[in-house]
Automatic annotation (TrEMBL):
Pfam families: Macro. Residues 1-169 form the Macro domain. This is RNase III inhibitor. SUPFAM superfamilies: Macro domain-like (SSF52949). It comes from Flavobacterium crassostreae. CDD domains: Macro_OAADPr_deacetylase. InterPro entries: Macro_dom, Macro_dom-like. SMART domains: A1pp.
Length: 169
């Protein structure tokens, strides 16, 4: 029971950590990133200015300021441009590097958004398989985070994750 599938707005979670699909500047943008920055307040972008940006596949942590969550892990997903192995590896790294931060901080619950599946154009079926496999393997080998929630905001992603969970049980 270390995986949960939810349908909803990631800015509403009281978890110790939510994962943002950010842009390299970390200064906010559209989609989930925009929703997080709007609700967290200006203090978030002020703090993010001190982080020195973030490369594709990397992850950085900040407080969550006005959000109910405690912390935000910002990771920059790949754009799906060349349909290449390196884009797949980059998306995997987003999940792995976020999970490593959660492990280091001994976070109990990490809530992931569906990284790269909006503006960055990654095919949702491929992205869900990468994310699900990366997260489940990591949880098998690590005590922290205790739980991962996949937070879907559209029905297509929700159905894809549901099918992946069904295949597992
Ligand atoms: N809660 C949870 N999920 C959400 C929310 C929300 N409030 N809003 C959107 N999503 P995207 P990307 C889902 O475009 O593809 C930004 O401008 C949405 O349904 O937010 O990684 C950044 O600044 C989709 O499945 O992120 C970057 O420049 C998922 O979040 C760029 O877009 C990801 O869509 C990042 O693009």
């Amino acid at each position: 029971m270390r995986i949960e599938l939810h349908f909803g707005d990631i800015t509403e979670y009281t978890a110790d950590c939510i994962v943002n699909a950010a842009r390299p500047s970390l200064l906010g943008g559209g989609g989930v990133d925009g929703a997080i920055h709007r609700k967290a307040g200006m203090a978030l972008s002020e703090f993010c200015k001190t982080l020195g940006g973030c490369s594709v596949g990397e992850a950085k942590i900040s407080p969550a300021f006005n959000l109910p969550a405690q912390n935000i892990i910002h990771t920059v997903g790949p754009r799906y441009l060349f349909k290449s192995e390196s884009e797949i590896q980059d998306l995997k790294n987003c999940y792995l590097n976020s999970l490593e931060i959660a492990k280091k901080h001994k976070f109990k619950t990490v809530v992931f958004s569906n990284i790269s599946t909006g503006a960055y154009g990654f095919p949702k079926d491929l992205a869900s398989t990468i994310s699900f496999e990366t997260v489940t393997s990591f949880l098998l080998e690590n005590e922290f985070p205790e739980k991962v929630i996949f937070c879907c905001y559209d029905v297509e992603n929700l159905e894809l994750y549901l099918n992946l969970i069904k295949e597992k049980i």
